[in-house]
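Re: folding output
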Amino acid sequence: MQDLTQGSVPRHLARLAAPIAIGMLFQTLYVLVDLFFVAKLGDSAIAGVGAAGNAQFLVMALTQVLGVGTMALIAQAVGRKDQADANLIFNQSLLIAAASALATLVGGYALTGVYMRGLGADAGTIAAGTEYLHWFLPGLALQFALIAMGSALRGTGIAKPTMIVQMLTVVLNAVLAPILIAGWLTGKPLGVAGAGLASSLSIGVGVVLIFLYFVRLEKYVGWDPAMFRARLTVWKRILRIGLPPGGEFALMFVYLAVIYWVIRAFGAEAQAGYGIGSRVMQAIFLPAMAVAFAVAPLAGQNVGAGNNARVRETFRAAVILGSGLMFVLTLFCQWRPEWLIHGFTSDPAVIATGGEFLRIISWNFVASGLIFTCSGMFQAVGNTLPALLSSASRLLTFVGPAIWLSHRPGFELRQLWFLSVATVALQALLSLWMLRGEFRKRLPAGAQGVVA
């Protein structure tokens, strides 16, 4: 356990954010490694895997419910020096993870076909996406255990073990991908099925490794058979904090699904270009997301300890660090975004679509960083509903206008990207306004006391 209620706030923020960023980078490489080899299979395979990969946002929505609730409650318990409550939260989170994994497998295999038929641009895209998801679903189900254990460590102020596990699993995925997708060494290429299988096997190894860390090295929280039975009052505590962030990712799933549905009229090349561009954008977002992930346990422990001034200082430091990083990345995407797409495909139409997407969408990078940081602060204070309301605002400002634009004569993809930039800016302003109100209510200047 690392006490974050004492010492330099910027130093704690950097110490936490660095391994989180590295771990998230390697996590993103799961998708990028698969995408690199899948790209060799053609535009329909790229589009299919890209559309199917968006189902991960729905699973991420569910893992966020578990992860954010677990992390926030354990961080606050650590700040209160209440080890018993932290351990109870951890064990109940593992129980929820097991139930969620089972639901993911049952629901995923039942609905994959319906999902892909609704988004695929052609029969080839639908077939590729369906096959990929069938093999990737076990890995998605295992994410719940991985998130539960990683969030518990983050709540206690520890980030390095999760980073190391993510690095090792991505290395394994990078080794398995060419063997399973392209048939290196075996001579039996599995295509998109190999991409899903490589990720599932790698995630499974990651779960085993982080479980062994808890068994052998972790002392503050750990598996306790006496606590491993359902306690609904604890589940309600986790869900109260975790459901709104889960709703945020569910809305992201809807948002991405709408984009794929709108642009399918432009063909598999357009869906492939957007698929690559959006994955690259997710990698670009990593610095700001790492800062936001570091904000939550740092501010959360200080919320639990009643250190209001340090909570505010955490937010200021995160805004400066995150915005600065995102501004630099914006400049790069204004310069040569096509370079980032060319590494995955040589198709001029795909490169043009992906490059234009990154050049325009990069104007919302700083605003996105602010949204991430605000979400981390909402998690820390234990009221995540404002973050959900902020995300929901995009259903009004983006989805409706996007569908309307798509039916207008002369509709172009760039109109969709400009609309996205405008709506993200509005969302950032709304998040900042609601966080200011939360600070006034829960963190009065000069006052101390634990936030409920």
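--- second protein (sequence, then structure) ---
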Amino acid sequence: MTARRVLWHVLCLAGVAVVLYPLVWLAFASVKPPAEILSSLRLLPSRFVLDGYRQGWEGAAGIGFGRFFLNSFIVAGGSVLANVMSCTLAAYAFARLRFRLSGPLFVFMIATLMLPHHVTLIPQYIIFQQAGLVNTFLPLILPKLLATEAFFVFLIIQFIRGIPRELDEAATIDGCGVYRTFWYVVLPLTKPALVTTSIFTFIWTWNDFFTQMVYLNDTDKFTVPLGLRLFVDTSSQSNFGAMFAMSALALVPIVLFFLVFQRRLVQGVTTSGLKG
């Protein structure tokens, strides 16, 4: 092994260490005694305690933390289903169908990638408030049904363009219409792109704090990011041990998703970026 390769491996390992250190610190901080969490600079605790996990699972404001996990799964699961369904239909239309103004509409959709989310937040809030949907999960899920995530639409479009059109023509010869061709031919072949969309949607929704803080008011409807905020109170004592413990526990669903679908995730990203 040459010196250059050794140096390259050392730099890569150093980069990995820098990225993973906050997660390692969080894991050890969740099992530290409360007095050592902020006062001690040592990474390893003097003794391992699990009081933070017990207190954290009991929750805050009289609500168990399991309720926050359930709310997050409802919001994230609904967002994944809505986003995958709407983005796939929109991507199929742009990639395979011919209709008037398809070019300008595609450009307009791509242009929305440069539009900050905060610009549309106030108009959306007014609409949902007038509809009486504020303080429910619907404002967090319904926009996903309109294919508002242009990034995922573009991702699936690139993947569909890599599927030979001869398959569509063969399905047409066999008597399939547009919808049956989509359902039986195109959709099964886009699984890597759909898995990629599902994973990123789940992660972004699971970690979202700002949007959920805007629309959810009642504590029993809080999700995990909002529930973690309840452990930190500027006007009284904060329970950092419970917050760190539940923060470490909140990473488990994301890690499991990535481990289960890692192969399809990488395949979906690489093929969508190269084909088209």
